[in-house]
Amino acid sequence: MNSMLEQLRNGLVVSCQALEHEPLHGAHIMARMARAAEEGGAVGIRANGAEDVAAIKQVTGLPVIGLVKQNYADSEVFITPTWKEVEQLITAGADIVALDATRRRRPNGETLESLITAMKEQGQPIMADVSTMEEAEYAESLGVDCVSTTLSGYTSYSPQNAGPDYELVKRAVKQLSIPVIAEGRIWSPKEAVKMLELGAYAVVVGTAITRPQEITKRYVAELSVFRLAKEKV
């Protein structure tokens, strides 16, 4: 097993990401966020964009899972859609490259199969982001190093759960022989622990730790419910 992947076992990977329209966007900010996560005990970082990956590698000693979120007009695939993004991440030094491993049509006529083959030829460890059990099994058959449940609920045909997809993790752990990483809508430490109890190799948490605007919204929503209830009394 890849030594970098081994470092993630039974631990917390913190996803340090901010898109261009978000207030914390910027490689220097995400590098500091990653440093804070490392000080808090994270075993790895998941980062978006070659610039962020390179900046984080400079300030932490943690394995960095790199991806590139990129929109293409001719495809729904958003996470590391093409070889162009893969090359950017390899150049930036990503220890593991994560990519959308659904079987949806990719941009420029590229395919999941061709990308994984090319990455394996370069010895690049691969994390397959999936939304269903069928996708997880297919990704394993292509030779990826691990699968992550990142996309469950984010494809039109996967379960639209409000919370974590425990069932997918449970099934994947039983049916796959490669590590299964739990990711997606994990908001509390108890939910993270439950994923490990189900057999997840590691847990990825992003929004609940590194997106203060979304954390704030949750508090504000709860307080609004309280105010409305009080006004009715």
Summarize the structure.
Belongs to the NanE family. By secondary structure, this protein is α/β, with parallel strands linked by helices.
Detail the topology: elements first, then pairings:
Elements (H helix, E strand, L loop, with lengths): L2 H4 L5 E5 L10 H14 L3 E5 L1 H10 L4 E4 L15 H10 L3 E5 L11 H10 L4 E4 L3 H9 L4 E3 L17 H10 L4 E4 L5 H9 L4 E4 L1 H4 L1 H21 L1
Parallel strand pairs: 1-2, 1-8, 2-3, 3-4, 4-5, 5-6, 6-7, 7-8
Explain what this protein looks like in three dimensions:
With 233 residues, this protein is an alpha/beta fold. It contains 10 helices and 8 strands. It has helices at 3-6, 27-40, 50-59, 83-92, 112-121, 133-141, 166-175, 189-197, 207-210, 212-232; strands at residues 12-16, 44-48, 64-67, 96-100, 126-129, 146-148, 180-183, 202-205. An 8-stranded parallel barrel has the order 1-2-3-4-5-6-7-8, surrounded by 7 helices. α4 links the parallel β3 (64-67) and β4. α2 (27-40) packs across α3 (50-59) and α3 packs parallel to α4. The longest helix is centred in the C-terminal third of the chain and has 21 residues, at 212-232. It starts with a helix and ends with a helix. The model has no long low-confidence stretch (mean pLDDT 96). It holds the Pfam family NanE. Keywords: Carbohydrate metabolism, Isomerase. Converts N-acetylmannosamine-6-phosphate (ManNAc-6-P) to N-acetylglucosamine-6-phosphate (GlcNAc-6-P). Its EC number is 5.1.3.9. Belongs to the NanE family.
